[in-house]
Design goal:
Elements (H helix, E strand, L loop, with lengths): L2 H16 L4 H11 L5 H16 L1 H8 L4 H11 L20 H6 L4 H7 L2 H4 L7 H8 L3 H8 L5 E5 L6 H10 L3 E5 L2 E9 L8 H4 L3 E3 L2 H9 L7 E4 L6 H9 L3 E4 L10 H8 L4 E2 L7 E7 L13 H5 L2 H20 L1 E11 L8 H10 L3 E9 L8 E8 L1
Parallel strand pairs: 5-6, 5-8, 6-7, 8-9
Antiparallel strand pairs: 1-3, 1-4, 2-3, 9-11, 10-11
Helix pairs in contact: 1-2, 1-3, 1-5, 4-5, 9-10, 13-14
The protein binds S-adenosylmethionine (SAM).
């Protein structure tokens, strides 16, 4: 496919996504129907689509409309290109701009964004902007700007299998260049060859796992010690379970309300060379219970940009109820002198400090040991961790 044909396809797929179809489903369906497209075409179209979803409001402003074509005009303008260069109507390139489309463009990109309301320039729904500024103050605009960008690829070196230098050398032999990252001593940022990671020897032998650097930093911050019993109450795919298992010699149990989410964990644990038990109904007490609760995912919206447009006040209130319930259940499973750790990948107080304040006000005998947040400006996704103990 030519670069312009990829833009034409991205504009069509974006129309289906704007109509409400999930982006992954739209991209996979297109790839199945389009056997002529190679892996580079699929990757380029995916990049166009996800970039446009991250920057939906600002691109619609620049491109003159919330349509697939409007978003792709906006993307080109933001990249300093004139839409007419790609929309030529020749071969498989998208149709030329109509007069109305041409008139609606904002070619003065910097001025257009400078005078746009903050949530438009920052690519956030209006109702979310106050949540962001309330939580982050002066850091809100920078965090929003970073969520408009593609996420770096991070690896966690599994120190149960080897050290950083061994991992970097192995990755390099497979054409993958990395650099260390200050967020965590086990984090490597992939600087080239990211698409080879899943086929690399280091990945296949469990020497590295894909895991965001701030997610690793969160595991580093947990008060883990050898010999303790740990329950990962919302283990999901097991990212944090495996990170904890690499840190300490401990008896680790993984649980999730949706057992299907745990299905890959036994194979991942075997690959990583660590033991993890799975419990449908965990029986406490545990020395440390981690609840990495379901949340808006706002700290990771650069990876899942559809989430920021899909979130509603009702959905956030539902999440808050689930978060409160999980905290109560997890507290009941925590040993008398144990640690209850609450984590989200959200930037909002409503899912972080407010949940902890509610728990502490309603549940006698608990105190906050410490809490900590990681912002996108530190390089990884946004995360929050609070560690509680009985006081
Ligand atoms: C943020 S994800 C966990 C991610 C995982 N810890 C990791 O690092 O890969 C939240 C998980 O909580 C699970 N969950 C939702 N409601 C739950 C509940 N009431 N009790 C336990 N787990 C729940 C979801 O199925 C989901 O897998």
């Amino acid at each position: 496919m030519t670069p312009d044909a990829r833009i034409a396809t991205a504009a069509e797929l974006l129309d289906s996504i704007l109509d409400g179809q999930p982006a992954e489903q739209v991209l996979t369906g297109w790839a199945r129907r389009s056997r002529f497209a190679g892996s580079k075409d699929r990757a380029a179209i995916r990049d166009h689509v996800f970039d446009a979803l991250r920057c939906r409001r600002s691109y619609a402003l620049l491109g003159g409309g919330m349509t697939g074509r409007g978003l792709m005009f906006g993307q080109l303008l933001a990249q300093g290109r004139a839409p007419e260069e790609a929309f030529t109507g020749q071969g498989h390139a998208p149709a030329q701009l109509t007069e109305d489309e041409t008139a609606a463009l904002r070619r003065d990109v910097e001025a257009a964004l400078a005078e746009a309301p903050a949530p438009v320039a920052g690519d956030m729904p209006d109702w979310i902007w106050p949540l962001l500024t309330e939580a982050l103050g002066a850091d809100a605009a920078r965090a929003a700007a970073l969520l408009r960008q593609r996420a770096p690829v991070f690896l966690r070196v599994n120190t149960a299998r080897g050290d950083l230098e061994t991992a970097r050398a192995s990755l390099l032999r497979d054409g993958i260049e990395t650099q260390e990252h200050p967020l965590s001593p086990t984090a490597l940022e992939v600087t080239s060859g990211a698409r080879q990671v899943a086929r690399s020897t280091a990945y296949e032998t469990g020497l590295v796992e894909l895991q965001d650097a701030a997610s690793q930093a969160l595991s580093d911050a947990l008060p883990l010690r050898n010999g303790m019993t740990i329950l990962d109450y919302c283990a999901g795919g097991g990212g944090k379970t495996l990170a904890m298992a690499a840190h300490v010699q401990a008896r680790i149990t993984a649980h999730d309300a949706n057992p299907g989410r745990l299905s890959d964990l036994p194979a991942r644990a075997a690959r990583a060379g660590v033991d993890v038990a799975i419990a449908r109904q965990p029986k406490g007490p545990f020395d440390l219970v981690l609840c990495d609760v379901p949340c808006s995912g706002s700290g990771a919206w650069r990876r899942s940009p559809e989430g920021k447009w899909a979130l509603t006040t009702d959905a956030l209130a539902d999440l808050n109820r689930t978060q409160d319930e999980i905290l109560q259940k997890a507290a009941a499973l925590t040993a008398q002198d144990g640690v209850l750790a609450y984590a989200t990948c959200s930037l909002f107080r409503a899912e972080n400090e407010d949940r902890i304040a509610k728990f502490l006000s309603e549940t006698k005998g608990w105190v906050l040991d410490f809490d900590r947040r990681w912002l996108p400006q530190m390089g990884g996704d946004g995360f929050y961790l609070a560690c509680l103990r009985r006081g």
